[in-house]
Specification:
Radius of gyration: 22 Å
CATH architecture of the largest domain: 2-Layer Sandwich
Shape: globular
CATH superfamily of the largest domain: ATPase, nucleotide binding domain
Bound molecules: 5'-O-[(R)-(carboxyoxy)(hydroxy)phosphoryl]adenosine, zinc ion
Number of strands: 12
CATH topology of the largest domain: Nucleotidyltransferase, domain 5
Strand order of the largest sheet: 5-4-1-2-3-7-6
Order of helices and strands: EEEHHHHEHEHEEEEEHHHHHEHEH
Mean pLDDT: 88
Number of domains: 2
Number of helices: 13
Distance between the termini: 30 Å
Largest sheet: 7 strands, mixed
């Protein structure tokens, strides 16, 4: 039985390249040894959204330097004991396999070869990687990178669902020990300690209260999930068109505000004047529908029609009010359905996560509403709401309790992977 397990996690499903190392004692507590995230926002900003081919190129360019940085921070970067003999039979066989695995990622192969000859196998027990859902070309880079490392270092791989990882991000600041009967503490984020090196030591708290209703809102996904426990999910509803974050991004593009839209729209909304708000009304699509589905493209279209009626000067004046009303409309629908689901399924806990969960109004309002109903509420710290490999590592750790890892030969990408 392994006493300490170290997981190296890789995330490349969209426009963030991220590698983390998580160390876990058997049955927790766990420590995040490193979590390096490189955002491609500047690359995609001129296009107003993520361009998959550019994302693939950037992941290829950045994975090896980020791996080096991440292992270094985790104090696991070791030079080879003896120089790898490039002509040795063993290395020739390994490099042949590497060439095959990374045949579609030649840039990555070029950077990985010298890294592997210079540095030895780190003290890692498992590789975790996002294999879906996400942008297919971007996912393949991370998955092939995981395969390459696993083949050279002879390690198993735990494939991770990106949406599940957003949910599990709620446990990042805490221990992962499953709740013991009778212990029902409230979540205590203030007990998370930051040490000098800015790694986070997780105290041995337990606090999971199921069933939980989980709202995952990001640039690619909007799902309402009923969670019975780790690995036990039911999708109650999801968006029928645009994801919530995508809608924010499209509004920002429409108003020429930049990319990504969510944070900019929220910032501009804060400047809205009361008298202007009376002149802007947007719909709350599907707020009264009996299901738990969402639709955000209607909201975007309504905003577009309204914007088209305005001259340049009025648009400039009303832009903050449009942002505020848009944000409020999206949040009204999200919260109304989440609370209705929490009541219908007698949830003990409401979990919020995904990039849009960084929105202060959404965090604040859902916290208040769940507090009124005496429900537990959790939302990850903002840095764990947007894409990161720490959440991939922790999801893999949870998965080790009920799933077997796979070999590198078995691993594949599932761009439309679902959690249930
Ligand atoms: O989870 P994430 O990093 O990537 C995906 O898995 O899609 O989410 C990115 C999305 C973007 O659409 C961005 O506009 C949105 O999250 N976002 C926000 C805020 N911060 C990021 N949306 C609303 N308010 C925010 N403060
Ligand atoms: Zn995401």
């Amino acid at each position: 039985m392994i006493k300490i397990m170290r997981i190296l996690a890789i995330e490349t499903s969209c426009d963030e390249t991220s590698i983390a190392v998580l160390e876990a004692n058997k049955d927790g507590p766990f420590t995040l040894l490193s979590n390096i995230i490189l955002s491609q926002i500047k690359i995609h900003a001129p296009f107003g959204g993520v361009v998959p081919t550019l994302a693939k190129r950037e992941h290829q360019k950045n994975l090896v330097p980020i791996l080096k940085q991440s292992l270094n921070e985790a104090k696991l970067l070791k030079s080879q004991k003896s120089k790898v003999k490039s002509q040795s039979v063993n290395w020739r066989t390994k490099s042949k396999i590497l060439e095959e695995i990374l045949s579609r990622e030649p840039e990555l192969l070029k950077k990985l070869m010298p890294f592997l000859t210079k540095y030895g196998r780190p003290d890692i027990d498992l590789i975790a990687v996002t294999n879906g859902p996400g942008l297919e070309p971007a996912l393949w880079v991370g998955v092939n990178f995981a395969k390459a490392l696993a083949s050279v270092w002879d390690l198993p791989i735990m494939p991770v669902n990106h949406v599940e990882a957003h949910i599990i991000a709620n446990w990042l600041p805490y221990s992962v020990i499953p709740a013991k009967a009778g212990i029902q503490k409230a979540w205590m984020p203030d007990q998370v300690r930051h040490d000098k090196k800015d790694t986070i030591k997780f105290p041995n708290l337990l606090i999971s209260q199921f069933p939980a209703i989980s709202l995952v809102v990001s640039g690619g996904h909007t799902q309402l999930v009923l969670m019975h426990g780790f690995g036990k999910y039911e999708i109650l509803g999801e968006t029928r068109d645009d994801a919530a974050g995508e809608a924010f991004d499209k509004l920002a593009r429409m108003l020429n505000l930049g990319y990504p839209g969510g944070p900019i729209v929220a910032k501009i909304a804060a400047e809205a004047k009361k008298q202007d708000l009376k002149n802007v009304r947007l719909p709350r699509p599907m707020i009264s529908s009996k299901d738990y589905d969402f639709s955000f493209s209607g909201l975007k279209t309504a905003a577009l029609y309204f914007v088209k009626t305005l001259d340049k000067k009025t648009l400039k004046k009303l832009a903050p009010a449009i942002c505020l009303e848009f944000q409020q409309a999206a949040i009204d629908v999200l919260i109304s359905k989440t609370i209705r689901a929490a009541k219908e399924f007698s949830a003990k806990t409401v979990l919020l996560s995904g990039g849009v969960a960084a929105n202060d109004l959404l965090r604040g309002t859902l916290k208040l509403e769940t507090c009124n109903l005496k429900l537990n509420f959790s939302v990850p710290p903002k840095e764990f709401c947007t894409d990161n490999a720490a959440m991939i590592a922790l999801t893999a750790l949870c998965a080790t309790k009920h799933k077997k890892p796979v070999s590198w030969e078995e691993l594949t990408v599932e761009a439309n992977l679902r959690i249930a």
